[in-house]
Write the structure tokens for this entry.
Amino acid sequence: MVRAAVLPAVNAPLQVTDIDLPAPGPGQVRIRLAAAGVCHSDLLLSNGTLRQPAPAVLGHEGAGTVIEAGPGVTTVAPGDPVVLNWAPSCGACHFCGLAEPWLCADSGRAANAPYARTAADGTDLYPGLGTAAFAAETVVPASAALPLPPGVPLTDAALLGCAVLTGWGAVHHSAQVRAGESVVVFGAGGVGLATLQAARIAGAGPIVAVDVSPAKEELASAAGATEFVVADGAAFFEKDGAKRIRALTGGVGADVAVECVGRAETIRTAWSSTRRGGRTTVVGIGGQDQRVSFSALELFYFGRTLSGCVYGNSDPARDLPVIADHVRSGALDLSGLVTDRIGLDDIPAAFDAMLAGTGGRALVVF
């Protein structure tokens, strides 16, 4: 039996309980988790903003060690340290054929099939985003287990599975930030802090961090922000936020804005904060009720670009070794994203902290 945090139903409290995890089948591996990050996407899965069959074991940002491999697995072996990939590409669909694996049409297939059962009554359980990392052990397709490059601490490596790949990709793939460009990042949670580090590594400057919490200034500065702006109430978004950011970026606006919140007002302010011809990348995931509006005239006049960003537009197999080089050199500090190291029972409190806009990444350590 394995200890896990189970979501009984959408909007129900998590229950830490024992589950029965089967042996890995063909093409699957069993992994003993070292750590799992608590991501905003897990909160959105739990409250129904993102679709997830339930009951389920959530958690998709994780790292651990392979302890058993099913028939036909050749990419990893027992004893190998791995990072979970919650969006493994099939390699055969239309989007994979376009070399856009982050848009793979089949990447979410594993999330829709039961993978385990509750120990108490045998109820089928679904794996959150196909990975079910809020458990001491999990079983996933081998394609969802990426070999961890050497020299990266296994516990902190959990952050590579979502926050870091997303933030890195938003800067280097989606926005394609160049050295000397100014960047503003909205939201200084786990993904936002990773984005700030990626912008610093890219040679951006100035780098402006925006957050509702003044307490995050120290975290943002350590990650690479040269300026910190508090989004202090409705007036910031409705009137003066974009002006304050333009004043910090040469008076014309930032070259690049990265929105890591997923709310209409932050997306709109991020776009308005950029210069004519500027680029805004939206990383944050919002609900269907979050509507953003623009006039046809301003779209023409400002010539700005607004783009979505899925998983950082990353190819994890390509990007992980590059990111690992920066971790080994000390340029990218994984532990700098973590403000709380917790247990399974503490995940609800981590959800509450995200809703309150406090802290960076909470990391479940097994």
